[in-house]
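Appendix B, example 12.
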Amino acid sequence: MQDSFRGGADDRSREAQALIRADSHAIATARLGYVPVGYGAEPEEEEKLAVSLRRYVHLLLKHKFLVLGTAFVFCVLGTIQTLMKTPLYAANVSIQIEREGAKIVESGTTSPTETGSVDFLRTQHELLKSRSMAERVVSALNLYKDDTFFKPRDVSALGLITGYFSKTQTLSPASKIAKASDILISNVTVMPVPGSRLVDIRYLDPDPHRAQMIANGYADAYVASNLNRRFEANAYAKTFLDDQIKQLQIRLQESEQALIDFAEKERMVEVNDKTSIAENSLAAANAAAGQLISERIKNEQLWRQVESSTAINLPQVLSNQVIDTLRGQRKALETQYQEKLENFKPSYPEMVQISNKIKEVDRQINAEIKTIRNSLKAGYQSSLAQENEMRARIEELRTEVLDLQKKGIRYNILKREVDTNRNLYNSLLQRLKEVDIASGVGSNNIFIVDRAIAPTSPSEPNLSRALFLALGLGLVTGIVISCLLEMIDDRVRAPEEVEQISGLPTLGIIPRDQSDMELSVVIKDHRSHVAEAYRSFATALQFSTDSGLPRSIAVTSAGAGEGKSTTALAMARHFAHIGLRVLLIDADLRRPSLHIKLNLDNSMGFSNYLTGASMPPDLVQRTDHPNLAFMASGPLPPNAADLLSGPRVYSLISLGSDVFNVIIFDSPPVLGLADAQLLSGAAAATVFVVGAGDSRKGALRAALRRMYMARVTLLGTLVTKFDPKTVGYAYGHGYDYQYGYHMDTEDADRSTQKPQLARY
């Protein structure tokens, strides 16, 4: 064996290192991209909901004693508090609240309106619970004079202590009324009846007759308060209307006086006709102007016809009698002249005389035509002058009418102001008369439907209801405390938590041993639960890779005391028990413990090989099992990380694989040290041990992060020290380690075989 280890140590070490470097990328990909079977599929929504429900159920089962204890304490306290309370009697009075009261003045109707408002009803409910209403009831019933009314209703330790040490003080009537009002407010309940305008007023009191009296007093006080508010509103309205009427009266007098002053100043007279004298004159002038214009146009046309014309046959000339007579004379003279011209020459005296007469007639005709022309021209000029005068008059009348209209606008403004003030004054006078009438009518919108009667049995305290509320509050408090404890406690307790944090499959679950024996002794008992769990874990390791059981396995954990050394020993014993040759190496060069569990020597071991002082055949020790060899840690070196980072670890794995079927390293913890990362990087696979209840979630995440950064092949996790009671459910269901257990004859024969390490 010594020659085998020494014969090709260097060559095999170099080959192993080259092989590991060549496959480093593939190994790292397998490590970082590892998705175990059954973990890659995303669960359905229903499955997630079921898992969440199971988690809450498990949480309740885990803290069931805390929850039940809290509920029991609350029930006891609720019972004590209920029994210490004074029995209270409830008296109920029912009232009806209408939106508006009966209307006596308006339209003569007496029926209340059916309109309602949520804001209105809510306001009325708050008024019922107001302090002013409570003080009104206290004053009306003289409750502040009743000393029994102020007696405490609940007995408490704090009240007894403060009452014992406090001095008796004499309260003033105002203070008593305020204190009694506080008692009423705390014991009265206003309960609106849904879907109606009915309201129930409920009052609690130790005395049933006083409860009846106060409940009825509340209803009476509310009715009286409502009436008082109406009377006060009417009185305020009357005062307000009186003041407004006085102001309007003054304004009306001022506006009327202003109207009169303006009319006198402008000399305006109001007539029944809608139009004024100036407007009528303007209309008449416009009509006369139209006629004058027509006449002027006619005269102008006549004059224009005769002004430049010389014709004698003009209508104006032909219609003239003088011209017509002269024309007749001329015609007769002309005829006579023509007749005598046949006998006499023109120079004949008689002919000259006739000719002169014709000329005279012509002169008279021309003179007459000229006279006609002058008369037509004079008529035209007269018409034109009259037209111009009428136009000037129209302009004067138009200016006068415009001025009058401006004054009329001001006058109408003043008149409208007078009319408005008069209407307002009359309206306020009418409203004042209505308020005077309404103030004497006692209309109300509050009606008492059922008066309170004296209760015969107490309604509080209700022991069953108090116990139910205490139980519910206790359960809620217990659940809240349990959730807070779970949130505060960051220890890993369940395999599901380990899988959720690491993303690795759980290869095995080792239950917590309840006996007082050493765990290394317990695993020797094949009938124990712990041993059976370790066998199940070792079996899972045989199917963890495609090639079966890895040839070299490093066992590590996040921190110390999580069971990695015991796990390494149990693995080694199981594989040796099934016939495999196993080399167990205590690689914890800081705090070795396997030599103590195996009762073997630790003077030489793994550290001696790493330093080159010894070879493996000189360091391997026999154990109580023939197939199990052990290499102790040896003397503790000062530079463990430096030794583990060298090539001798790879050489030991390469050479040992020729002799042993599997090599198991008991590695130091991950946190705070680099040893575990170096050993796990050299080994073919690594098992991460998590102590249930010992490992913290933050530490577990940090340790796994360091392992991933070191490109370590993690096969999975092993949960040790698992106690189903701590997680609130029987996770061991289906893991009955006592089920049908027996030792095979072959196993018994193997256990009695002698050590065969000499042939290595």
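The CA atoms of residues 321 and 327 lie 10 Å apart. The two ends are 5 Å apart (CA to CA).
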